[in-house]
Amino acid sequence: MPPRSCEVCNTARAQILRPKNHARICAPCFISIFESEIASTITSAQLFHPGERIAIGASGGKDSTVLASVLKTLNDRLHWNLDLVLLSVDEGITGYRDHSLEAVKRHSAQYGLPLKIVSYADLYGWSMDQVVAQIGKKGNCTYCGVFRRQALDRGAAMLGVGHVVTGHNADDASETILMNLLRGDLPRLSRSTNIVTSTPSQAKRKGGEGQVTFTDVKRSKPLMYAYEKEIVMYAHYKKLDYFSTECIYSPEAFRGSARTLIKNLERIRPESILDIIQSGIDMAKLVPDAEGNRKGAGDDQASTRAPRPEDEPNEGGCGSSNSQSAGSEMAEMEAKLTQDSRAEETGTETEITLPIKPTPHTLQPHAHQPTPSGPPNAVLTLDPKAQNHDRHTHTHTHTHTHPTTTTLPLRTIQTQTNPANKPAPPKQRLGHCTRCGYLSSQSICKACMLLEGLNKARPRTGIEV
Amino acid sequence: MEKTANPITLQVEFTTDTKGQPSNVAFLTTWLCDHLMKDPRKEMFVLEGSVRPGVLVLINDADWELEGEEKYELQSGDEIVFVSTLHGG
Ligand SMILES: [Zn+2]
Ligand SMILES: [Zn+2]
After folding, report:
1. Residue A289 belongs to some domain of the structure
2. A325-337, pLDDT tens digit by residue?
3. Own/partner pairs for A232-236, CB < 8 Å, 24+ apart?
4. Cα(A205)–Cα(B19) distance, rounded to whole angstroms?
5. What CA–CA distance (Å, rounded) separates A447 from A229?
6. H or E segment to which residue A268 belongs
7. What is the domain extent for residue A133?
C-alpha cells in the first residue's frame, strides 16, 4: 500500500484513520484537530465560565491524563483563565493506585497544576484493600464506586472548587448507554447522555467560590465525544506519560461484555460509537422530564438539581466501577432499601395524568423551565425509585406511546418547605443523609449503609492486608 | 501480580516466518502470544486468532488501519507498537 498523504495539509504522511469520519491525517494535524474539537465541545456546551476554578479528576490513566493535558493547553492558548487543579482519589489499592498516583504527581509537576489527593482510608476509615479483605472480591466495585462518587465531591469541597471534570470518553458513554438500554433503564439511559452530570443548586452560587459544600459540586465530561482510540493516539503522539494497567480487583462482568461489544462494533463500523450516543440523546428526548439536566443545558438551568443520586453509574475513574453489579449482595441491599422507601412514601404518592408538550419542544435547554411560583409543598417529580432500579417503576416509562399525555407520579411533600423563599427547583425527593449530609434519596446514604455493614463486621475479623 | 507492559514496542529483525513465507502482522501477533507473552490473559491481546478489538497497533508510528492491518508484511527495521485501550482511564 503506497503511503498516502494527509487529507488536511496534503504534505505529511497520513498516520491516523479517524474513526468518526474515516479521514486520513498526519499526527500534527490530528493533534490540532483533536484539541480544537474538545475546545468546541466545551464552548458549545458552555461547560466553563471564564476564571472558573475546576478540579480535574485525575487517576493517572490515559483519559484523565489527556484531559489534564488538553485543558492545560487550551487554557493557556485560548486565555480562558481557568484555575485548574488536579484532584485524585486514593482508593487504597496496593500495586495499582499507589503506582498510578505517582503518575499524577508527575503530571502535577509537568503541567504546573496543584494536586489534592483524598483517600478512602481518611474519608471512610477503610481502604479498598481492607474492604476486599473483609468482603472478598465479589461486589467490591460497588463499594469503590459509591465511595469514589463522594470522595471526589468532598475533595472538591476541600479545595473550594465547585466543578469537577472527569475523563469519560465516547466509548464510555456509548457503553453506559448500551448497558442501560439492555437493562431497560430509560431514566439512567437519559441521564448518561448528559455532558453535565450534575449541577450545583442555586444556594451554592449565592455562597460564592471558596464556600463550596460537597453536595454542590458540578460534574462534567469534556471528552464525552472523543473516541478512546483518539485519546490513546493523542497521548502517544504527545508522548504523555500515563499509567496503564487494570485494577487488580475484578471488574463487573456485564460492563465488560458491553465494552467488548462496543469494541467489536467499532472495528466493523467505527461510527457506531458516536451513533449510539446520538441514539441515546434521541431516546432521552422520549423520557418525559426525568431531569432538567440535558445536554448543553449548562449553568443556568435551574431545574438541574434533580438527578443527583449517589448511585449514578460510571462516574468513577476506573471504568469498571459502578454500583450496579447485578446479582451481587449489593443489588439485594439496594432492593431492600428501595422497598423500605416505597413503603415510607405510601400515601404521599398519587398517580395523575398530565399533558406534556410534543417532545421536540421539551428538548430545548430552556424550554422547560421550572415554575418558581408553584406551591412550595407540591413538587412534580419522577419517582426516585426509577433511579433505583425498581422494575415496577418502569410502568411509568411505558406510557409514552401516547403522543401528548403521560402518567407520572405526583408526590406531595408535606414536611418540606422551601427555605429562604428561593424559587423551588423541581427535584426528585432528594434529601440529605442524616449521618454524613451527602445528597441521598434515603435517610442514610449508600456510603453510610456500606460503612455500617463494614464496621459491624470489623471487630470480628480485624484487618490484615 | 503479573503485569504486561503497555504499550509494547517491537523492532522487527526477521522477515520470514517458520515456513519461509514473508511474515505479516498476523504472524507476529500469534508468535508473540506463543513465545513472548508471559501474562496468562492472552485474550486481552489476541482473540480468535487476531488482535483483540481495542488494542491499537502502530506500524512505523502510523495507525495500522492505514497499512493493511494484519496483512501488512513486515520489513526489517519496522517498528511495531501495540497499545491497549482496554485499561481504565
Ligand atoms: Zn496533516
Ligand atoms: Zn451518608
Report:
1. yes
2. 333 444 444 554 4
3. A232/A62, A232/B56, A232/B83, A232/B85, A233/A16, A233/A30, A233/B56, A233/B63, A234/A30, A234/A31, A234/A34, A234/A66, A234/A70, A235/A62, A235/A65, A235/A66, A235/A69, A236/B7, A236/B58, A236/B81, A236/B83
4. 71
5. 34
6. helix A253-268
7. 33-201+211-293
Q: What is the DSSP string of A179-232?
A: HHHHHT-HHHHHHHT-SEEE---HHHHHH-TT---TT--EEE-TTTTS-HHHHH
Say which of B4, B62, B72 has its CB closest to residue A13.
B62
Q: Is the pLDDT of residue A184 over 80?
A: yes
> Shortest CB distance from B83 goes to which of A14, A232, A246?
A232
User: Looking at this predicted complex, what is its ipTM?
Assistant: 0.87
Q: Domains (ranges, CATH) in chain B?
A: 8-84 (3.10.20.30)
Q: Are strands B50-51 and A349-355 parallel, antiparallel or unpaired?
A: unpaired
Is residue A388 within 8 Å of residue A324, measured between CB atoms? Answer: no
* B84 confidence band (pLDDT: 50, 70, 90): confident
Count of domains forming chain A: 1
Within a domain: A5: no
d(CA A410, CA A272): 38
For A281, phi then psi, to 5°, come to -60, -45
Nearest CA in chain A to B3: A245
CA atoms within 13 A on the CB side of A398: 6
- Is residue A157 a contact partner of residue A164, using CB atoms and an 8 Å limit? no
pLDDT at position A291: 47
A20 touches chain B (CB under 8 A): no
Is A14 in contact with B62 (Cβ distance < 8 A)? Answer: yes
Strands (E), A73-189: 83-90, 115-119, 163-165
d(CA A277, CA A256): 18
* d(C-alpha A285, C-alpha A407), whole Å: 16
The answer to whether residue A322 sits within a structural domain is no
Tell me whether residue A42 is in a domain.
Answer: yes
For residue A67, the surrounding DSSP H or E stretch is: helix A62-78
CATH code assigned at A176: 3.40.50.620
Tens of pLDDT, residue by residue over A378-414, are: 332 223 333 333 334 333 434 343 444 444 443 333 3
Q: Which three cell numbers stand for residue A209?
A: 467560590
Task: List the one residue out of A90, A61, A88, A85 whose CA is nearest residue A162.
Answer: A85
Tell me: the pLDDT tens digits for A189-237?
Answer: 998 999 998 755 434 444 444 456 666 789 999 999 999 999 999 999 9
The string of pLDDT tens digits covering residues A428-445 is 456 788 888 887 778 888
Q: Which three cell numbers stand for residue A170?
A: 465516547
Ligand nearest to the CA of A444: 2
Residues of A in contact with B87 (CB under 8 A): 61-62, 244-246, 319
